[in-house]
Write a structure and sequence with these properties.
With 714 residues, this protein is an alpha+beta fold. Helices cover 67% and strands 8% of the residues. Among the domains are: 199 residues, no CATH class; 128 residues, no CATH class. The chain has 22 helices and 11 strands. Keywords: Membrane, Transmembrane, Transmembrane helix.
Length: 714
């Protein structure tokens, strides 16, 4: 029981936070604007106050910190709610910047890693949405795009070295991966045509520098895995790029021969590197063994994908029959099973190439041939004792079974039943006392949830959907409890990942509304917290999670958050009361913001504008709008560079609107998002024609309402 107490607290906090986010995203119309703001502030006080009280009373540092993180998340939800209430940009960079500041302060004050991770995520989101807003379009030149991506690389490089110095492994790995991933993207010819050659050189230089500086040294298995993975992704991406650019010039046969040769060279070089490393390092070193296995796996997968895809095209061009590839794939599998003494990388490549080639033609083979491959996969599963090969063969068997079911059953009508049955088989295999399969326990767990996940969210019957969701949740909860008690870290972490995926899937699932999910999760979270607290009766003696000095600094951050929430609400309410009311014509669309819910994306008639070549994206301009005989304010003349404050007093029935030029065809005023209650956006999209906007003397606008006719706005 003691081992499940922390699990219960963590789960209850996640449920409560999910319920809060779902509730705010639903945009329920039962509360007024000020009531929603007060509710958001109250939730923050509840989390932060609970963190302090439980820390002092129960002496549970883990619960204290989790509630503190919950408070930081609830502040982000409050900022998003203010944007939703007053129709600010959907997923605006300002939302994430405002959220980032106290999160970063809490990371420095508490030295708690989740705050550092949250700050990193918010920092990246702020950067990305500043340069690529979700609700508006900004035109940029290729060089400007390149500078943006280089900025991401440089910033993540700084984060990498900072995280290393502070011992924050998760941040270190994330930043290391992002640096290499964005350099790969920048090397694509079709992304940055002018600069792709230099970006290829830069990526290879950074990869080599990473290898000699970090990956080659002991104790850097995580960086080694990421580095080799990125190298494999780079090789595959270059293969795809060359296939597009050179297929017309070289012809089909020439290209496939070239690719097969490239794969063999890559495989040979990898085997040579692995053998040479084995001679230079101690075989007793755990770090060396991990690094060597990582190298072999990356080389294997890269070579196998190159070989299988190239062989498929080559054999089809020669024989004009997919069965030729099926025969070759069976030959590969037989050779891999027989040649047990060859280098592991070469043997793995034979296996994976055979499996991938077979999967590529399964859908067009007759049933007898499919059964033949099913038997072959089962035999390999039984004769091989190495965990990686068992994983490959078992994955292949599952894929063949899914192919058989989709071909011989009414897949569209019964896919949920089939997937659920296969999923339950995976969980049953965890209980089977068959020693040769025990290496696959983690695989059974992962495939069990992966197979059940589509069944829980893909379908039109909401009652059936709820049944599968309850099944998924029950199995997930059981896995969390069991592996928490057994202290099996990998399986416990995997169960947490699938739990978070479940909550994420529920957010985008339309079988039942966000409001209903919100109430359900809040009730579950509160009841679960109360139940765990009832069983957690042990009296503890010990220090608080934080010293009095740190608690004082945390309190200052909390007051800053509450002060901002109140100030924003008052400032917006004042602007609504004192500003000039105008009606603008619009052209709506309908997406969804992650934190703020459904919204209608608007394009205003007054915002139509094509600047000259000298006007850059982001230039501040002012549009003059004048009231016509119908009461609609329409643009008069061309936009002028500068702010409304510089234009002097407007004439009667005239208003100045300040916005930013997008560099292409329009001006954005910051009122392009109108948040609506869940499920009503499509109807508004079809009918809305006019928007009521409140404009301040400085030209800043707040969107108040959107309607389909003028009479309802006047």
């Amino acid at each position: 029981m003691k081992k499940t107490i922390p699990l219960g607290y963590a789960a209850s906090i996640i449920f409560i936070l999910s319920g809060i986010i779902f509730f705010f995203a639903s945009n329920w119309g039962g509360f007024e604007r000020t009531e929603k703001t007060a509710l958001a502030a109250g939730i923050m006080i509840l989390f932060y106050g609970g963190s302090f009280l439980f820390g002092k009373w129960m002496k549970r540092p883990d619960l204290t910190r989790w509630l503190l993180v919950g408070g930081a998340v609830s502040f982000g939800a409050a900022v998003a709610l203010i944007g939703q209430i007053y129709n600010s940009h959907a997923d605006s960079y300002l939302l994430f910047v405002i959220w980032l500041i106290p999160s970063l302060l809490l990371a420095v004050i508490t030295r708690y890693q989740p705050f550092a991770i949250l700050s990193y995520v918010l920092f990246m989101l702020s950067y990305w949405f500043y340069l690529y807003p979700s609700s508006i379009f900004l035109y940029r030149t290729e060089f400007e795009q390149l500078l943006i991506y280089l900025g991401i690389v440089v910033l993540n490089g700084l984060v990498f070295f900072l995280a290393r110095s502070l011992g924050l492994k998760v941040l270190e790995y994330c930043a290391f991966a992002v640096v290499h991933l964005f350099l790969i993207i920048m090397s694509f010819y079709y992304v940055f045509e002018t600069y792709s050659l230099w970006m290829n050189v830069l990526f290879l230089a950074v990869l080599l520098l990473s290898y000699f500086s970090f990956m080659k040294k002991a104790g850097h298995q995580g960086l080694t895995f990421i580095g080799f993975t990125m190298a494999g992704i780079y090789v595959l991406s270059k293969y795809i790029e060359m296939s597009i650019r050179l297929s017309d010039q070289l012809g089909g046969l020439s290209f496939y021969f070239f690719t097969i040769l490239l794969a063999l060279i890559f495989l040979g070089a990898g085997i040579f590197a692995a053998v040479k490393a084995a001679k230079q390092a101690s075989s007793d070193s755990a770090a060396f063994k991990v690094s060597k296995n990582i190298l072999i796996v990356i080389i294997t997968f890269t070579s196998s994908i190159l070989l299988s895809s190239s062989l498929a095209g080559l054999l089809y061009l020669i024989f004009e029959s997919s069965y030729a590839l099926a025969i070759v794939s069976m030959v590969f599998l037989i050779l891999a099973a027989v040649l047990k003494t060859v280098n592991p990388a070469a043997r793995y490549t034979l296996y994976i190439t055979g499996f991938l080639s077979a999967l590529g033609v399964l859908t067009i083979m007759d049933t007898a041939a499919v059964y033949l491959f099913l038997i072959a996969g089962a035999v390999i599963l039984l004769i091989e004792r190495e965990g990686f090969l068992q994983f490959l063969s078992y994955s292949f068997v599952l894929a063949v079974l899914l192919n058989l079911f989709s071909a011989h059953f009414e897949w569209t009508d019964h896919f949920r039943v089939i997937l659920a049955a296969l999923s339950l088989i995976q969980f049953a295999l965890l209980l089977v006392p068959f020693k040769p399969l025990r290496k696959l326990d983690s695989v059974f767990l992962a495939y069990g949830f992966l197979l059940l996940y589509p069944a829980a969210f893909w379908g039109t019957d909401w009652r059936e959907t709820l049944v599968y969701q309850i099944l998924y949740f029950g199995l997930n909860l059981a896995a969390l409890v069991i592996y928490q008690q057994k202290e099996e870290v990998f399986k416990r972490n995997a169960a947490w990942v699938f739990f978070i995926l479940f909550l994420t899937g529920l957010y985008y699932d339309f079988a039942w509304k966000l409001l209903h999910k919100s109430v359900t999760f809040l009730v579950i979270g509160i009841v679960l917290f109360a139940a765990v607290r009832y069983f957690d009766r042990e009296k503890r003696a010990g220090e608080s999670a934080f010293s009095k000095k740190r608690w004082a600094m945390i309190a200052a951050v909390v007051l800053l958050q509450l002060g901002f929430t109140g100030y924003q609400s008052v400032a917006n309410e004042t602007a609504l009361k004192e500003g000039t009311s105008v009606i603008l014509q619009l052209e709506p669309l309908d997406p969804r913001s992650v934190l703020q819910g459904d919204y209608v994306q608007l394009r205003y008639e007054a915002g139509r504008f094509e600047g000259d070549e000298t006007m850059k994206s982001g230039t501040v301009v002012t549009v003059k709008v004048k009231k016509d005989s119908t009461g609609v304010f329409r643009p008069e003349g061309k936009p002028v560079i500068g702010r409304a404050a510089d234009m002097g007093e407007p004439e009667q029935d005239t208003v100045y609107l300040t916005g930013k030029y997008n560099g292409y065809d329009s001006v954005h005023f910051g009122i392009e998002s109108f948040f609506v209650e869940e499920g009503t956006g499509l109807e508004l999209e079809r009918s809305a024609k006019y928007a009521k906007v409140i404009v301040s003397r400085g030209g800043n606008a707040l969107l108040k309402d959107v309607k389909k006719d003028l009479s309802s706005l006047k």
